[in-house]
Design a protein that fits this description.
The complex is a heterodimer.
Chain A (H helix, E strand, L loop, with lengths): L4 E12 L2 E12 L3 E5 L6 H8 L7 E6 L3 E4 L11 H12 L9 H12 L15 H13 L5 E5 L7 H16 L3 E6 L10 E6 L2 E2 L1
Parallel strand pairs in A: 3-7, 3-8, 5-6, 6-7
Antiparallel strand pairs in A: 1-2, 1-4, 8-9
Chain B lengths: L11 H17 L1 H21 L4 E5 L8 E5 H27 L2 H10 L3 H27 L8 H25 L3 H19 L2 H6 L3 H5 L4 H12 L5 H26 L4
Helix pairs in contact in B: 1-5, 2-3, 2-5, 3-5, 3-6, 3-7, 3-10, 5-6, 6-7, 6-10, 6-11, 10-11
Classes of the chains: A alpha/beta, B mainly alpha.
Amino acid sequence: MAEHTIITARNISKSFGSNHVLNDLSFEVERGIVLGIEGENGSGKSTLLNILARYWKADSGSLVINGRIGFCPQSPMLFVHLTVEENLSFFKQAYGMGKNRVTDHRIARLDELLRTFNFPEPLSKKCSKLSGGTLQKLNLIIALMNDPDILLLDEPYASFDWETYLSFWKFSENLRNEGKTLIIISHIIYAREKLDRIWTLRRGKLV
Amino acid sequence: MDTQERQTGMRAGYIYSAVRLWFIETVRNKMVLLLLFILPALFYSIAWITLSSERIIFILGSVKGKPVVPVVQEQLGLIFIGLAATGLIASFLALTMMQRNTLAKKRLVLCGYRPVELSAAIIIVVLITTLIVSAYIALMATLFMHPAHIMGIIWGYILCGYVYGSYGLLIGAILKGELEGILFIVLLANLDVGWLQNPIYYSGAQTKAVIEWLPAFFPSQTTMIAAFTDLPAAGPGLAGFFYGTVLLMIAFAIFWYRIKITR
């Protein structure tokens, strides 16, 4: 793996029964870029992202990821009967985050994320009472709070309002400047000028 | 594919956080509270109003020599209705605990939790909740009757909660659909605890072996021995504990397989 390469995939295939979703996919992703992967419904985008996130295992092939992953799924995977604060506390524990902002920079980062995305609700509010857009913000914040090297985003801005959409792109630019890699999948990629690479996935192959 | 990282061992802080937050989540569930407080009282009240005070006899299947025990029908009915409520509530709580937020649990694993820590936290939450429910239902029985060995009855109910809680976890691990899960637990709890294990049915059953393999056999025998005899109930008690533990282990093997991620 070259020094600037953060993901190397070789001959990745994945099938669900007789449905071959990914066919012998090989690629490399450089560090510090914003990569968009677009494709029609059923082209294998979400399958690929789930394999990169280690949710699913490919049937064959090899995958080497050289960094910490943050995964923002399309539908928020959260505990809806818990409050925002309790969800954050659960994931802080999962990430092994400390309580002291001096010894753990991720604590300050979390405060910064809440400010950046203008998190409007009181943190004591139950997630089941949040709007779809606010829930998606929390989903994104949870993916980002561990300060990942690679951020995997599945249709990230589908429920964002205009202001949050702009904040998202501004923040993405900052992340890229910090040397982080962003992989965004969507059936339609907007703001194409903000992306360094755009790949198209068709019938399980990159074209 | 690259090899899967084997993470073993449990971190107490991680388990504590999961237990604390899942307890909060359970308490916030209005259906759980409704089940906890209303259902046992309702079951007992109906039984108390409808049962007669005639004396009947039944066979204790788990005791050597299968002795015949005479009891008042009302007392037997109340003991059984309590067992049925315990089995139903424990399995429902466990099913909900296992099925709810599967994707969020998997995300926790991706973020750093180990599946074994989440499994341990689920077991702790289900065990403590089952313990509270079983003790509450057994103590509620004393409002309607005054059995001789109340501690033995509490132990029998806890055993029923443990076995049915494990069954609920197993169903929750196997089935993704909530409705199918509820159907499975209601069906078995009704058939097994509410009907087949009832000594009146058991005493007259032609094939007792099938009934003796069902989950509620040992808990109901333990409870009846404590409620109506002075015999020791350690044998069926231990057998029931073993039965519940086997169900629990199978449930967690399936749960572990479902939430594990590749590394």
